[in-house]
Amino acid sequence: MLKVVHYINQFFANIGGEEMAHVPAEIREGIVGPGLAFKQAFGDEAEIVATVVCGDSYFNENMEKAKKDIIEMVKKYNPDIFIAGPAFNAGRYGVACGTIAQAVKDELKIPVLTGMYEENPGADMFKNSIYIVSTKNSAAGMRKAVKTMAPLALKLAKEEKIGSSAEEGYMPNGKRVNFYEKDRGSKRAVKMLLNKLNGKPFTTEFPMPDFDRVPPNPPVKDITKATIALVTSGGIVPKGNPDHIESSSASKYGKYDIDGVMDLTEETFQTAHGGYDPVYANEDPDRVLPVDIMREFEKEGKIGKLYRYFYATVGNGTAVKNAKAFAEKYAKELKADGVDAVILTST
Amino acid sequence: MVKEIERVGIPVVHMCTIVPISLTVGANRIVPTIAIPHPLGDPSLSMEEEKDIRRKLLSRALKALQTEVSEQTVFED
């Protein structure tokens, strides 16, 4: 029987949510949490011999140590394949899954597999170097994810030939494979063109790469005269969250007046973010949105002034499309108001 | 969001803890911070020590905003 080592986070191991995201890596014999679904899908072909459990914040804040420790743990079991996640749209979990799978592949030379939602930052970071199955954006997609991941994992463990991304369900990794299409090129092209002319959907055979990079702007010339704005994805809002910004998958952002506000306090501000342990940000919101020190800099003349408003949203499983739309809108306002530079903080 | 701010012509510095994400997203000026739930603070320290850390990190952010860059740059110190 093939041996599998599985990696999951503190949440899926039932240790706890964000308040437990700091727990270091540990290894447990056998199956934990979603491993059960994999066990059922594997049948008699493979067995999860051990499960690594690690807090998402711990992994991301101590990446080098976590990688080293986990590789030692995995090595002892000498598995035929290492599976991480699936992580769905959990950003830190996705980055952890990709990072550890990549490290296990490189160091231990065994096949690896992970799964996550296409907008998870871990996807763009690792999809060209390891197999990542595309999943839904929430754990409600577990069953479907396992259905795709389990057979692919078995194939990888047995070192069988892996089919195309469309056949196997992994994210396209930029590798091209020659094969024969049923119809010749001219016929396919005309068909696509007819669909396009008729306003019907068609699938290109050569998608253009998406290089969305913006070149850096020139630096601020005289910072002591500059107006600087604070923006955050860390969810800092006035106490009570007046705009009801969602704790995850935010559909909006807030614009808040801080005229005369010298310091953010527990009584006046809070975080609306549901993707990290809110205790520290609620205790002192300056830990996320540093109004206190910016005021100090303003008074000392280190900066011209702090812009009168700050903008905030919750960056927690928030669709890229939404975040882009928010920023397109408020960036125009910042520009129109003569803001010279922005400090954007993220949690 | 950093890209959209940069796109309208305003220089922006991204202060965050998981630098690889910031690089993937496409921030050009990046200042690494303390920890995910408290990027600009450290609850294990006294209030004054915390403020010192915040001053240091924000001074680094101001430095980043005054530095000419031609590619993605992480300001470690």
Which terms summarize this structure?
heterodimer; A: 347 residues; alpha/beta; Rossmann fold; six-stranded mixed sheet; 13 strands; B: 77 residues; 14% strand; globular
Write structural notes for this entry.
The complex is a heterodimer of chains A (347) and B (77). In chain A, strand 5 (112-116), helix 5 (121-126) and strand 6 (131-134) form a beta-alpha-beta unit. In chain A, strands 2-3-1-4-5-6 form a six-stranded mixed beta sheet, with helices on both faces. Chain A is 34% helix and 18% strand. The two termini of chain A are 43 Å apart. In chain A, helix 3 crosses helix 4. Chain A is α/β, with parallel strands linked by helices and 347 residues long. Chain A has eleven helices and 13 strands. Chain A folds into two domains: 2-168, Response regulator (Rossmann fold); 223-345, no CATH class. Chain A has helices spanning 35-42, 56-61, 63-77, 91-108, 121-126, 142-157, 165-168, 185-197, 279-283, 291-300, 320-336; strands spanning 2-9, 26-29, 46-54, 81-84, 112-116, 131-134, 227-232, 236-238, 254-257, 269-271, 305-306, 309-312, 341-345. Chain B has 77 residues and is an alpha/beta fold. Chain B has one domain (2-74). Chain B contains three helices and three strands. Chain B has helices at 2-7, 19-25, 47-65; strands spanning 12-16, 29-32, 73-74. Chain B has a three-stranded parallel beta sheet, with helices on both faces. The radius of gyration of chain B is 13 Å and the shape is globular. Chain B starts with a helix and ends with a strand. In chain B, 51% of the residues are buried. At the A-B interface, helix 2, helix 4, helix 5, helix 9 and helix 10 of A face helix 1, strand 1, helix 2 and helix 3 of B. Strand 13 (341-345) of chain A pairs parallel with strand 1 (12-16) of chain B.
